[in-house]
Amino acid sequence: MTAAGKLLLSLRAALRQVADPERAPQMQRYTKSAMPYHGVASSSARAVFRRVLGAAPLPDAATWRKQVLGLWRGASHREERYGALWLAGDRRARPFQDLEALPMYEEMIVSGAWWDYVDDIASHRLGELLRRQPAPMRKAMLAWSRDHDMWKRRSSIICQLGFKADTDLDLLYRCIEPSLASKEFFLRKAIGWALRQYAWTDPDQVVRYVRAHEDRLSGLSRREALKNVGERRPLHRAQRDGGQTTRPRS
User: Fold this and answer.
1) CA dihedral 83, 88, 91, 97 (to 10 degrees)
2) 17-68 confidence digits (pLDDT tens)
């Protein structure tokens, strides 16, 4: 058995020890997950990840990527994939966060194809890569913004969520552009979320953008974008509903 396979079995056994199977169906319903849960609370899962995954040797980038993908591909329950996300962000892996890790994150985004996985990878892992290698990552995110895969497009839009004043507005707007006409809830939500986050830094800029694209932005995207703007809201006409508010929150 490979080292990654042994690590997965150790993680699975440790998660089962602290699991509450009665919680599992409720957790699965909340995320609308096709993959079952063990029923492990977030705090308990993090403790398991620190103990089990934190002890796994990570001598080089190749080993780290093999371990992360081994957990991801072999997971039978959602908490095991959360473990893969935790290992992807392990502090020991900071020197390995470069463009060679992007195919790994792309696989996780495309195969995971749901908000809880994608948003963690996009806002944390892709954002870090963008800070470290802005030119090639900018090119990659522009390509992702036009990809047929919705989750890659969402990732390109929200990869700068924590950038504040360092936000590359040209990149943000160019990543939003191909999805403005989309009726996909998760793309409309991503557009509004990204704009809302930047509004904490420059609300006037967000108001200007919303006003300039009022006829193309969905009602959902506009409402999300302007949540932090208060009385500066520039829209007076009735707003169209851009998506089902009962869907999982971002």
Assistant:
1) 180
2) 999 999 999 999 999 999 999 999 999 999 999 999 999 999 999 999 999 9
The DSSP code for 164 is G
CATH number of the domain that 90 lies in?
Answer: 1.25.10.90
pLDDT at 99 over 60: yes
Neighbours of 25 (CB within 10 A): 12
Q: What pTM was estimated for this model as a whole?
A: 0.90
DSSP track, 66-130: HHHHHHHHH-SSHHHHHHHHHHHT-GGGGGG-SGGGHHHHHHHHHHH-SHHHHHHIIIIIIHHHH
Distances (CA, A) of 32 to 25, 76, 123: 10, 16, 21
| d(C-alpha 20, C-alpha 37), whole Å | 10
Residue range of the domain that includes 35: 1-96
Token pair 């004043």 in the structure block, residue: 165
Helix (H, G, I), strand (E, B) or coil at 207: helix
Q: Into how many domains does the chain fold?
A: 1
d(CA 128, CA 97): 8
